[in-house]
Amino acid sequence: MPARRWSRSTSTRPRWRLTQVGLRYGRRRHQGCRAGHRGRTLRRAGCREPVLDVGFESESTGYLVGAFGLIFRTTDGGASWQPLLHATDNAKALHLYAVRAVAGEVYIVGEQGLLLKLDRAAGQFRAVELPYKGTLFGITGNGKALLVHGLRGTVLRSTDTGRSWTTVDTGLQVGLTGSTVDATAAS
């Protein structure tokens, strides 16, 4: 099977590219990944779970998430990746669909209403209680609000970094898989 490639390039962040090899579902065991070609390519050697998202909070620190609880962190811009399965409140190994840095915090969303927030002091991704137990596909926000979204038009909004949530009525019954912050909106 040919490899699938994703690329991202901006003028303010380093260029990085992922190469996904051998898309196969597997068990919770993450056998490690290695970086190749000058650290710009992550080859999933032995990782059987699909990568579903990659997000960077800085030029050097980023996270990779995927199926069956797949989670890795890099602190060197992608030259190497360390598994973090042991550092998440995700005992069921639920799929992790998106990872984003919003207003200085790092969040991950997944199946069964799973929202994880990085507790920097503990070095752990801690579960955040939500009033929704369906699948969440994305996260977006700014300094004023955090939004998570998923199945059946679900959008939840927090204005206190995830301590409390309100449901946003979208009038939609479809899965919301993508979001962005309007660059012209005040932050």
Descriptive key words:
four-stranded mixed sheet, four-stranded antiparallel sheet, disordered N terminus, mainly beta, 187 residues, Thrombin, subunit H
Provide a descriptive summary of the structure in words.
The protein is mainly β and 187 residues long. It has a domain at 88-179: Thrombin, subunit H. The chain has no helices and 16 strands. It has strands spanning 4-8, 16-20, 34-36, 41-43, 51-56, 62-66, 71-74, 82-83, 96-102, 105-110, 115-119, 124-127, 136-141, 146-150, 155-158, 166-168. The chain has a four-stranded mixed β-sheet with strand order 1-2-4-3, with no helix packed on it. A four-stranded antiparallel β-sheet has the order 5-6-7-8, with no helix packed on it. The radius of gyration is 16 Å and the shape is globular. The chain starts with a strand and ends in a 19-residue tail after the last strand.
Q: Estimate the mean pLDDT confidence.
A: 79
Order of helices and strands: EEEEEEEEEEEEEEEE
Unreliable sequence segments: 1-46
Q: So what's the overall shape?
A: globular
Distance between the termini: 44 Å
Identify the strand order in the major beta sheet.
Answer: 1-2-4-3
CATH architecture of the domain at 88-179: Beta Barrel
How much strand content do the residues show? 35-45%
Radius of gyration: 16 Å
Query: What is the makeup of the main sheet?
Result: 4 strands, mixed
The helicity comes to under 10%
Question: What is the SS-derived class?
Answer: mainly beta
Output the CATH topology of the domain at 88-179. Thrombin, subunit H
What is the count of helical runs? 0
